[in-house]
Design goal:
The chain is mainly alpha-helical and about 550 residues long. The chain contains 24 helices and 6 strands. Helix content is about 70%, strand content about 5%. A 6-stranded parallel β-sheet has the order 3-2-1-4-5-6, sandwiched between helices. α1 packs across α2 (about 30-45), α7 (about 145-170) packs parallel to α15 and α16 packs antiparallel against α17.
């Protein structure tokens, strides 16, 4: 019976999420907001779904996979580039928001303990929300994207410390000495685990993963196994699964297969994240939240305006331009998934009323919705703010960075399949001064080509998107796999890019011609034709 209840609830969550995400596409609503609204409909409004422990576990897996992918996005060089600003801005914002937020909650009539929990909830920004949006915009690798992720990691570390602190508060065992000990243990645990995973990335992982990379499926399974192994290690250190998953991804980011891993894990992550956000909407208690609608509105405005203001001020003074400062600032205009966890802990411990959790959830819905649109449309919003002259209030303008330009190649040749034919094509084209991007699923075949190589399945639309097939001069497939060649021809036609395909059998030409293939390499057919001509010349075959 329990299994049937779980499957029914999960099915309703998935179907509601799918329906609302399609509807959201028509009005350009962020999918995250659509998922939360779906949860509101099937939860508080209709009572169709109740969140079970199994569904909570699925949500936690989604968060772990998301942080795993965040780690895969970050090399050590990227972390070093933004480490200083992330630490300074992250800690500065936490202190500012906590102090001002506490005073604001006290003025609204909440008790000191309720004010403490609400102020803490307002302090942290959502890694899940922002990373999902930056990923959709393909801006994870921008300067402001790297700074934002660094800030969120600092905030997450502080949130872990707060979780440890509040856990003790719930048992009545927290004093100054205990709090200090908890903080030291949390930071020491992160430091120890970081050394462990980076050491493994340097000396342990390269050999086994080089072997596993021969099979994309094996590589994914090994990567997920490593992720959950580090999550278990994080638990032994008293850390959260989010930190463990991130560090696992960070260690694999140092390997040459990180981009392929990220693409393959991404669809799995999307499913679990959808369940997380729909479940979040299901758990909201609207009646309790609307009873404090004035407080919800004021606290939401504080998060949407107050957090960006402090970030703009801090980042400008660290030498970054107005554009980067503004773009980074709008990423923090919402509360975090940690906010719900922290407040829920207070409710379970009997320290605050359940209505505080509902208020936090509604503030989360408002701030996540508004900030999602702010992030999606940050460029026109920045132009509007710049023209208004508001940024001048923060001091003299800093040196302006140029807008982000894509790191993708342009005006290049794409060669798919680095067999003997593909490798020869790459060398010939490069010898003529052309830029060539080589794609293959086997890292051994890409070795020796030095630059502009992409490990992945060319049949995957994400791989072709990363290769910028729409901006290529031509795609040449040296593969002999008919199904993949048909798919590549279809993708090229859709992108308006000329395509040349290796054909081993004349029976395959009809489909390719229908796909507007410009050239076909037919070595087997040419060989047969040449042999036929020679036999006719010798008189073996009648003319």
């Amino acid at each position: 019976m329990a299994d049937e209840f779980f499957l029914r609830s999960l099915g309703l969550i998935v179907m509601a999420g799918a329906f609302f995400s399609v509807a959201a596409g028509w009005i350009r609503m962020p999918t995250i907001v659509a998922y939360m609204l779906a949860g509101l409909v099937i939860g508080p409004l209709t009572g169709l779904v109740e969140i079970s422990h199994a569904l909570e576990l699925i949500s936690e897996i989604g968060i772990a996979l998301l942080l795993f992918i965040v780690g895969l996005e970050l090399s050590l060089d990227k972390v070093r580039d933004v480490g200083k600003v992330a630490v300074v801005a992250g800690i500065g914002q936490v202190v500012f928001t906590a102090v001002i937020g506490y005073g604001l909650c006290m003025l609204l009539g909440f008790s000191w303990i309720e004010s403490a929990f609400l102020a803490t909830a307002l302090t942290f920004s959502s890694t899940v929300v922002v990373v999902k949006l930056l990923d959709e915009k393909h801006e994870m690798d921008t300067l402001y994207g790297r700074i934002a992720v660094g800030i969120f990691l600092v905030q997450d570390l502080i949130a872990i410390v707060m979780l440890t602190f509040l856990a003790g508060l719930g048992t009545g065992s927290v004093d100054a000495s205990t709090a200090a000990t908890s903080m030291v243990k949390a930071f020491a645990g992160v430091a120890a685990l970081l050394v462990l995973v980076l050491g493994a990335a340097r000396w342990l992982l390269p050999g086994p993963f080089a072997w596993a990379a021969r099979s994309p499926e094996t590589n994914v399974i090994w990567s997920l196994s490593w992720c959950f192994l580090i999550v278990l290690a994080a638990e032994l250190f008293g850390l959260s699964l989010e930190i463990g998953a991130f560090l696992a991804g960070l260690s694999l980011a140092q390997l040459p297969y990180n981009n392929d891993l990220r693409r393959r894990v991404h669809p799995l992550m999307n499913f679990f994240i959808a369940v997380f956000f729909v479940s979040l909407g299901v758990k909201m208690e609207l009646s309790a939240a609307f009873a404090h609608s004035g407080a919800v509105l004021l606290l939401s405005l504080f998060v949407i305006i107050g957090n960006p203001v402090i970030f703009i001020w801090v980042i400008l003074r660290m030498g970054y331009g107005e554009r980067t400062s503004f773009f980074t600032a709008v990423t923090v205009a919402q509360i975090s998934e940690f906010s719900f966890i922290l407040v829920a802990m207070g409710v379970r411990a009997g320290l605050i009323a359940p209505s505080i959790l509902s208020i936090t959830a509604l503030v989360g819905l408002v701030t996540i919705t508004v900030s999602a649109y702010m992030i999606l449309y940050n460029a026109p919003l920045y132009r509007l703010v710049k023209v208004s002259g508001v940024l001048r209030l923060f001091g003299p303008p800093s040196v302006e960075e140029p807008p982000h330009t894509s790191q993708q190649p342009h005006g290049h040749f794409i060669v798919v399949g680095i067999n003997s034919l593909g490798r020869q094509l790459v060398h010939l084209l490069r010898a003529r001064g052309e830029r060539v991007l080589a794609i293959d699923t086997d890292p051994r075949k890409l070795s020796g080509l030095e630059r502009d190589v992409l490990l992945g399945d060319a049949g995957d639309p994400n791989v072709l998107a990363e290769a910028n097939v729409g901006g290529a001069r031509m795609l040449v497939s040296a593969l002999t796999i008919e199904e993949t060649n048909d798919l590549l021809a279809y993708r090229c036609r859709a992108a308006g890019t000329p395509c040349s395909v290796n054909v081993m059998d004349l029976s395959a030409t009809e489909n390719l011609l229908a796909m507007d293939v410009c050239f076909m390499l037919v070595p087997k057919v040419d060989g047969v034709s040449a042999q036929d001509a020679e036999l006719r010349k010798m008189g073996v075959i009648a003319p």
